[in-house]
Design brief:
The protein is mainly alpha-helical. Helix content is about 65%, strand content about 0%. The chain is built from one helix and no strands. It holds the Pfam family CcmD.
């Protein structure tokens, strides 16, 4: 497979795009873990979510 005179540019572009996608996936995984941990801490401290209440419970 020959990419011609622009082979280095093409390969570098694909590598940069792949790196950005990997970084975004890693960031999302870390954020999910952080949000899950924070929700567990709030649940343990007794703070409940508003979406967990029924329509009749809201004042």
């Amino acid at each position: 497979m020959s990419l011609g005179p622009y082979a280095s540019f093409i390969v570098t572009s694909y590598a940069a795009a792949a790196l950005v996608v990997v970084i975004l996936i890693f960031w999302i995984v870390l954020d999910h873990r952080n949000q899950t941990r924070r929700l567990r801490e709030l649940d343990r401290s007794g703070i409940t979510r508003r979406s967990g209440r029924g329509a009749m419970d809201a004042s």
